[in-house]
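anyone seen this seq b4? input:
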Amino acid sequence: MIALTLRDIKLAMRSSGAWLHGVLFLVVFTVLSVIALGADKTVLATLGPALIWLAVVFSLLLSFEKGLTEDARDGTLEQLYLSAMPLSALAASKLLSQWILIVLPLLIVTPFIGYGFGMELPEIKGTLLALVIGTPALLVYGTFASACLISYRSNGLLLILLTVPLMIPTMIFGLDASDGYAAGGVFDKSFQALAGLSLLAVGLGIPAIAAALKTHLETS
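predicted toks r here
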């Protein structure tokens, strides 16, 4: 699992900065939001957590189509399957590498975006912690959808249609957690619900992703 994760990271580092597309999208989305809202810091600070969550979700949606699809097209998935490697380990390694390559850069940039929106420090901390806890669930949903649609050549629209409804509960609790951090900290009920969603998604999602990959490999 660790070897596969390191392999994905090395390949991404050689891809001419493609792994930073999510950060670029986040910055562009932020700039456009500031322009659209008239640079009113009162409005931006109020809408800041929601705008950051939307930017992160859109950034993730742009990245889901590539990971498993590229491995399927170049034969990597088939080779790993024939090597008797557990597909659950492959699914877990994909989730870990995507979190490091896609989510972690977004988390690093998030405090600066929050500061640019004029958000107070507790709001920035709450939004960042909510993203740390909630993004594993978002990754599982997108990776599962990608595994289900791996046989389709142009699956971008279908992937979005399948993933977005699953993401909505996580976004709702994530925004509640971001707003409730100032009052209740990480012990706020929204944080507990968000953590429960992520744990449930990871626990059920890894076997589901493995099953979807197995179905693809055995029928292709």
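The radius of gyration is 18 Å. Residues 2-219 form one domain. kinda curious what u guys think
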